[in-house]
Amino acid sequence: MGIVVRAYSGRRAKSYTKSATMQQPGSVSVAAAGRGQAPLIQNLMQLYTHDFSEFWGGTSRGDVNAQGLFAAYPLDEYWVLPSWSAMLICCDEVLAGFCLVNDRTHSGLTAQRNMAEFFILRKHRGRGVSQAAAEIIFSRHPGSWEVAVTRKNAHAREFWRKTITASAKSSRFQELDLQDERWNGPIFRFEWGT
Known about the structure:
Order of helices and strands: EEHEEEHEHEE
Number of strands: 8
Radius of gyration: 17 Å
Structural class: alpha+beta
Low-confidence stretches: 11-22
CATH architecture: 3-Layer(aba) Sandwich
CATH topology: Aminopeptidase
CATH superfamily: Gcn5-related N-acetyltransferase (GNAT)
Shape: globular
Largest sheet: 8 strands, mixed
Strand order of the largest sheet: 1-7-8-6-5-4-3-2
CATH class: Alpha Beta
Strand content: 25-35%
């Protein structure tokens, strides 16, 4: 099918409406992860992959090995390549997730940064922690970004669309719809300012 570009009106989406029971996020921080923290990220990756496995039903993708573990994620390049980085996300000084940033886009178009993986533990979701962490990460690396979302992950699609378009730091937002051998799902491309 190829790439479909959706027009964007330029209007900013309203930020998330907080329900009466929704808690405000605590203090959110994002710190660079050193190579020595690769085992920690691999542990969190098990939870992340488990969350994703619901989208892989009927395929061999996401099967566990004889020890009951998902395959290890290839992390080495995140400490070798210049535009690649691994980060840990904390809420109130407690580990809440991780992200992996690189410059390898799914669209095949150039971008300075790509959100390769982004994970927040379920207990911290729905409180604004994810949005605060994403904004911190984008702000640390202003410039052109790409965020790809698998087609079946409707919640992530809405989260990223709202998070990106709600910020005054975001401009030139484009939503592509890719369905080919490279990717199957929406891809958000945008500029993030300082």
